[in-house]
Amino acid sequence: MTLSTYNFLWGILKLFLPSYLLRRQKKGKEDKYRLSERYGISKKLRPDGTIVWLHGTSVGESVAALALANSMKQNGFGKNKEEFFLLTTNTTSAAKLIKDKINRGLPAIHQYHPYDHPKFVSKFLDQWKPNMAVFMESDFWPNLIYLTANSNIPTILASSQMSDKSARFWTGLGYFLARKIFSKVDHVLAVDPKQEALFKKLGAKNVKSLTSLKSIAEKPPINKNYVVQLKKNILRKKILIAASTHPGEEELMIKLAVLLRKNSHDNILIIIVPRHVNRSLGIQNRIKAAGFEIKSRSKGEYPSKTDIFYLSDTMGEMGSLIEISDLVFVAGSMVPVGGHSPSEASQFGKPVIMGPHTEKCEAQIKDLVWSGGAIQIEKGPKMNDKFLNNIVELLSNSERLEDMGRNSLIASGYAQQRADEASINLIELLKTYRNTNVAKNVKNT
Predict the structure, then answer these.
(1) Residue 299's domain is classified under what CATH number?
(2) What pLDDT shows up at residue 284?
(3) Which of helix, strand or coil describes residue 366?
(4) What digits encode the pLDDT tens for the residues 79-90?
(5) Are residues 185 and 261 in the same domain?
(6) Are 52 and 70 in contact (CB under 8 A)?
(7) Same domain, yes or no, for 152 and 245?
(8) How far is CA 59 from each of CA 86, 205, 246, rounded to the nearest angstrom?
(9) How many CA atoms lie within 13 A of 129 on its CB side?
(10) Based on the structure, what is the number of domains in the chain?
(11) Are residues 240 and 200 both part of a single domain?
């Protein structure tokens, strides 16, 4: 596929875009008052000054964008009143996350990114004229990257990685498209050496293996009153947090509870935190059908010393739950979802266990396993049994849990250092570009 072919296809897709956006709006996936932003048209005016554009499609990439923004602020960018971040996202949930940070004082503007028709992207670039563009995603929009780089805007791919599926496309059918796009990019900060080699193969220049910026996401807050209430009746219990579970993983927790009961382990509490809280009732029904009682946070209930299960089915309390945990199962990894970032657990210095499906957070879990702060179960016919047996073994060995927790915290500090290195490099690149432009303008006059 070539860029011409890609743009021909977008010419066809453009005809169906209004009805597509309407369907998304009805499903709550679009803001009906901001649909024009999908066409590169904004109701906001560009402020005078320097704008660093950070792009992340969904919540995961937006967390990385916010982490980079915070790191750049700590290293000097944004202290000047004429320095801003432009944060673009695709999803409404990511927009909500960013809006919250802006309300707390982040010098930033949020926009939904334009769809990848060249005219939409050009309108967006003409409106915002960013001084630097940093893309943080695993799915790449060709025109968004190519036209940005072609507009003499320093263009960086940060926290960059491709899933195996994406890599097969870009190295196969999309190879010529990839060579045209990635050769235009100024710098690529890949998440690991494997991804570094992949981007070099696809024509990228100045590629460096750094880290995933999801590893330095802002540490979630703790509700001290909630922590006290949780601990009140379970002081002598070991606590396993099953964080961000998906269908199929609650069933594994039920099997774990059966195994614990069979082996007379009555000092363990399993706290399930579903990825989507609207699944709460179904989870409760399955656990009760298996012969276990379960209390839930949404009902204002707290676990007691006789409970095996507790359901945290409200939003915004992950920090409090990780704080009291002895072991964190970062879910989305025992089913083919791609895994969720283990960085929050690592920031709290907690040991982590994950399954084999970690395509979305491969760099983070590799760093944690290498440090000794995590265990990853390999894919295979007996992986569920290995997963359950590992949990039982870990929860029976306090010394090993403490050792893993220390290693996990060290790995988190290392990730922060690497992210600071990335932010300093970006600030220096921005200064160099601005100085070069000033020199050009002086020469032209």
Answers:
(1) 3.40.50.2000
(2) 96
(3) helix
(4) 778 889 999 998
(5) no
(6) no
(7) no
(8) 16, 28, 17
(9) 8
(10) 2
(11) no
